[in-house]
Every structure is written in C-alpha cells, then in structure tokens.
Amino acid sequence: MGMFQRDRQVFADAEPLDDSYEPEDIRERDEELEKYKRALQPIIDNRPTSNIFLYGKTGTGKTVATKFMLSHLENDATEYDDVELSTVWVSCENLSSSYQVAVTLVNELRESKDKDRISTTGYSQQRVFDILYEELDEFGGTVVIVLDEIDNIGHSDDILYGLPRARSNGYVEDVRPVIVGISNDFQFRENLSPKVKDTLAEKEILFPPYDANQLRSILNPRAEKAFHDDVLNDDVVPLCAAFAAQDTGSARQAIRLLREAGELAQADDTETVSEEHVRNAQDELEKNQLYEGMQELTTQGHAVLCALAYHQAIGEVPVRSRDLYQRYVKICERLDADNVSERRVRDHLSDMNMLGLISVYERNEGLSAGRYHEYDLDVPLKAVLEVLLSTNRFEGPAKIIRSTADENNLLQSDISDY
C-alpha cells in the first residue's frame, strides 16, 4: 500500500471549501445585492451609470458578490440589441500607483483582442492613459472596470480622476467607462484628493462583517456538498461559525476553518469531524492568519509595519507614535512612496492591533507629558521580516532591518516556536 491513498471517509467534494469556489447564490447579502442591482440597472437601460465602490473587510462577500452580479448583468445584456457591455477585472494587490493600474488595464484589454502587451516601463503616465483611452474606445458601449483592492494605490489616485472624466473631456467618444472599486479599507475614500472625490460621484455599498447565524447559513450548503453524509458532528458548523464571527466576521475564515477541521479528521483516519478537530484547526489557523494578515496589508500598512520592525530590531520598543512616524516617513522616502498623515498612521496601527499583529500601551505621565500611546510587535520579528522580504517593494529595507536584528541577536528564536 502506498504512502498516499485517496480519501473515501471524510470529503465527498472539497471544491465548495476552496477560496475560488463561486456559489450558485449569494446568502445573507440580500440588502447589499439589491443596492448593487439598482446601481447597475442604468447599464441595461442604456443610460449613464454611476461608479460603484464596495467597502468591507476581507471575507465579507464583496468580490463574490461582484462576480455574481456581473455574471448576471453580462447574461441579461445579451437580450438587448442596443446594449454593448464589456467587463475587465484588475487585481490591485501588487499595484501601488495609478500608472501601474493603467498599464495593467491596457494589457488586459489588449489581451482580450489578441494584441501585443505594452511594457510596464518606458512610457509617461499621460501616454499610458492615452493608450488606455484608445483601447477603451475600441470596445465601445459600456465597459465595467473592476479594480479589486483599489486601496493599494494609496495617494496615487490619478486614474480615479481620469477615467470618470474621459468622456466629458473628449478623450473617448464611443465608450462609457464605469468603475467598480473594491476596498478593504473603510477610510479609503477619505484619503482621496478632493478633486477625485468630486469626480467619482460613486454609489457606496458597505459590506459589514457576518454574524454567527449568517455564517452558519453560508456554511451549511457548502458542508452538505463537501462532506460525506453523517461525517460532521452537529456542533461542527455552529462552532466554525462562532469562532469566525467572534474574530473577523469573515466567511472565508469560517470556510477555511471547516476545511482544516476536515483535513485534521482525515489525518486522524476517523470517520467523523468533531468539536476537537475544529478547536485544533482554530489553533492552527490563528498562526496562519497572522501571516495572512500581514501579507494583506496595504502598501502604507506595510510601511508602518516596516517602521515598527526597525524599532524592534534596534531594541527601542515600545515606541511612541511620533518616533514611529518619523521612521515611517524615512521609509516612504527610501521607497519613493507617498506618506500619509500621522493620524492615518495611527489608523493603520489600530487596524494592526485588531489583527493581533501589534500591542498598544496607553501611557499617562500627568501634566508633564500627558497621555500618549506606545507600540510593540505582538508577533515574532522573524515572521514580520519574512513577509516584508517576500514583498518586492520592501525587500531592501527588510534586509537592512534583518542585518540590524542579527547584530543585536534578536532573531534567535524560530518562527515555529511561536
């Protein structure tokens, strides 16, 4: 008998537990989907359409809802001879500027027509925008441009100014671009330049975290498809839902927890998935979520984390926000990146505290110094550096921090001990 054997006890079809799985219907988002439908309806009516921005934390259904709605929109648009509709989807996860987004958009549009891609360098931003307008005009009709994780572009928001004004400025004649922006940062709009806020004139749809009852509703049909009959103990799905609801309210987290519990049961060669498997899976995923939480930070979030890692490496922690901000500004200058205000840096620190990545200490030194906050990493420095080193833009600063930490003997403990 070989080392690997096909599982016939636990999983019937694990696909519904995969991150890429697209369900036939969207549960527990009726109100949000109704708003989405109203926002997209003008496309079918063949009239000008507002831009649409979706806000919510990771795992709250923004992306899956967008794929669901656009799939129906594309299908229904074929029923009308006077409706020309195209969609283009760009993930901004590794894009930090309007220039990079525009180049990626051009290449996505060109690829759909089997045309040569353009280089990611060698053009001015305005030239790339001009090429983008030319490509869009070739499509004609309405082109829905989905910019997923748009908050990664930070202050480099020129594309959000240029695209909505392209038709009124005469840059395009035959096309109506409609932006659908998806952001994990509720504060993203507040940090846009005033001219962009005024130009976007978008409809906003907020996706709040799921509660335990909603997560159970989402998990149940997936569990029925994914596992053999009578494999799951009755308390497994409710416990997965409760753990995820208490932590992030993320459906993605609840689904991963259920899958991990099933894999642990499979490893135990047992015919049932129990509460113990769920609790063990929760312990395992908590460690993984710390890495994922760090990886999913925006460019600005990574810069703040990098600044805190520097202070950790030189042994100056906990560190006051004003000192941390000075280091953050220097890192942004080194990366040739825009820096945000000290207040926004504190917002990023607050988000990282909620993710369990850092600790915050409130100090009160009376009339002499007043009240202030200090910050410290709540995860191993080695883990932080591993994430920063895997992010191309931060590889240089991370190497310097790692060298400094080595000199101070601060990287002796292994991540696996955490």
Automatic annotation (TrEMBL):
Occurrences of domain Cdc6 C-terminal (ranges): 305-388
Q: Name one GO biological process term.
A: DNA replication
HAMAP family from the xrefs? ORC1_type_DNA_replic_protein (MF_01407)
Q: Supply the alphabetized keyword list.
A: ATP-binding, DNA replication, Nucleotide-binding
- Cross-referenced PANTHER family: CELL DIVISION CONTROL PROTEIN 6-RELATED, ORC1-TYPE DNA REPLICATION PROTEIN
Q: What is the name of this protein?
A: ORC1-type DNA replication protein
InterPro entries registered for this protein in UniProt? AAA+_ATPase, AAA_22, Cdc6_C, Cdc6_lid, ORC1/CDC6, Orc1/Cdc6_arc, P-loop_NTPase, WH-like_DNA-bd_sf
Residues that coordinate or bind ATP: 60-64, 210, 222
Q: Which SMART domains does this one have?
A: AAA, Cdc6_C
Task: Tell me which residues make up the AAA+ ATPase domain.
Answer: 48-206
User: What's a Gene Ontology MF term here?
Assistant: ATP hydrolysis activity
Function recorded in the entry: Involved in regulation of DNA replication.
Q: What is the lineage of its organism?
A: Archaea, Methanobacteriati, Methanobacteriota, Stenosarchaea group, Halobacteria
**One Pfam family cited in the UniProt record for this chain:** AAA_22
In which family does this protein belong, per the annotation? Belongs to the CDC6/cdc18 family.
